[in-house]
Amino acid sequence: MLDRRRLVLGASGTLLLTLAPWQIARGARMIEVRMWPAEEYTRVTLEYDTPLNFKYFFVRSSHPLRLVVDIKGLELTPALQKQIAAVKAEDPYIAAMRIGQYQPDTVRLVMDLKTDVRPEVFQLKPYANYKYRLVFDIYPAHPVDEVGRLLEGADEKEPEAAPMPNEKDDPLGSMLAGLGRSDKSEKQPSVKSEPPAAASKSPGKGKPPVRSSSKKNDGKLIVVVDPGHGGEDPGAIGRRKNQEKTVVLEIGRRLAALINAEPGMRAIMTRKSDHFVSLGARVNIARRAKAHLLVSIHADAWIKSSARGSSVFALSEKGATSATAKWLAQNQNQSDLIGGVNIATVDKQVQPIIADMTKNWTISYSLGLGAAVLREMKTVNRLHKNQVEQAGFAVLKGQGIPSILVETAFISNPEEEKLLVNRRHQQKIAEAILKGIKKQFAANPTLLQS
Ligand SMILES: [Zn+2]
Q: Does the pLDDT at position 347 exceed 60?
């Protein structure tokens, strides 16, 4: 939701420091320092009220290895110094941080690193409730295979993936990333208001697209479980301050566990902790895993607290089936802007071109899957909409991978918020989604022949 209130963060594994706002002579007013440690990457966010100039580089001769960031326009105060030094989360990559006055107009932030890393440093313009953000995404220099790690319950070690292209040897070249660039983040996702996509009369029937077999497949149905939001993006927030990102992660974990208890199925989660995953990265995880299905889990919100019920969505490439679906897709697609993605790297993600036949099959199967899940959701909660709706959700664009988005309930409805945080109800939702998947698959087993 756009008009969400200032977040109350601090879930386990997350360190939040709220700084008392103060004004400094020429510089920016620091609002908050946030840290989101995760295996995938650790994010450190500085939030302040005016744009800053910054550059960063490694000191490789030092032990430990250090990442140094010089920030112009942010003057040092003892309070900031104290707050930064206090950042001692259980972090896989950062051992310690400190900040000092390097030059009269330059503050130097030093991160002692536990291992070799590949940092992405970028600045975000104000969006939603956030002001300017300077973001440090600290990735491991030699990441373990992402899909292998995300296999829920997987115990075998996957071989190391090739390291990503690295900017570390040219720190100057990557300085000021995110500054002075045209703000592509103002691009809004477009959903044309044309008639809804004509869905197949028999959803999910027919032949699935041919794909290369996955070494991780083992003849199993691979289901990507995608808990929405995370990290800087809390999703919708209920009256009791429960956050969508937290409840959908809990439901997602339960669903993944249920899937893995099925002998013929395997779950991959797009996130297992409270960190931000971009919409494109979610789709890429599904692609790399050669997933058969993707289920994105969310909780709805509306201005009126009386709105209630579950709904299920599938992708439409030809317009939304209702104004609400269109609005919801636009809202969900803003996750990247709230969560904060590095535009410089996101733009490099290229969508493969696939045939219309595959697209039609994928959407048709998604509609069948959505209908099956909706029928089961009806047994645990009332429905907000009786049929699967369609709109241009970015997270459902894994071409060739049938994908649905389940709005489990309205977190903005106090009664449903209570249900969403209730463990038994979370389990019921997960069971309903699994039942829907199994029924759709039983009726259309060709999915696995792909
Ligand atoms: Zn959501």
A: no
- Same fold: 1-142 with 194-449: no
Q: How many A from CA of 286 to the centre of ligand 1?
A: 18
* 3-state DSSP assignment of residue 281: helix
372 Cα–ligand 1 center, Å:
21
Angstrom distances, CA of residue 12 to CA of 71, 169, 390, 405: 30, 35, 35, 26
Q: Give SS3 for 308.
A: coil
Q: Which residue has the tokens 């649905």?
A: 404
Q: H helices of 3-130, where? A: 78-85
Distance from chain centroid for Cα 118: 20
Tell me how far apart the alpha carbons of residues 245 and 250 are, in angstroms, rounded to a whole number: 9
Cα Rg, the chain, nearest whole Å: 22
What local confidence, expressed as pLDDT, does residue 136 receive? 93
Tokens representing residue 361 in the block = 């099959």
Domain ranges within the chain, ordered by starting residue: 1-142, 194-449
CA 450 – ligand 1 centroid, Å: 30
Helical H runs in 176-321? 244-261, 279-288
Is the separation of the CB atoms in 392 and 191 below 8 Å?
yes
Q: Is the confidence at residue 272, as pLDDT, over 60?
A: yes
Q: Distance from the CA of 112 to the center of ligand 1, in angstroms?
A: 35
- Distance from residue 413's CA to the centre of ligand 1 (Å): 15
- Average pLDDT estimate for 208-235: 78
Class of domain 1-142: mainly beta
Question: CB–CB of 169/333 below 8 Å?
Answer: no
What's the 448 CA to ligand 1 centre distance in angstroms?
A: 29
Residue 18 is predicted with a pLDDT of: 46
Taking the centre of ligand 1 as the mean of its atom positions, its distance from the CA of residue 228, in whole angstroms, is: 6
d(CA 324, CA 117): 43
Contact present, 30 and 52 (Cβ < 8 Å): no
Confidence at residue 450, expressed as pLDDT on a 0 to 100 scale: 55
Instruction: State in Å, rounded, how far the first CA of the chain is from the last one.
Output: 38
Q: What is the CATH number of domain 194-449?
A: 3.40.630.40
Largest CA distance in the chain: 70
Phi-psi region of 196 (alpha: psi -120 to 50; beta: other; left: phi over 0): beta
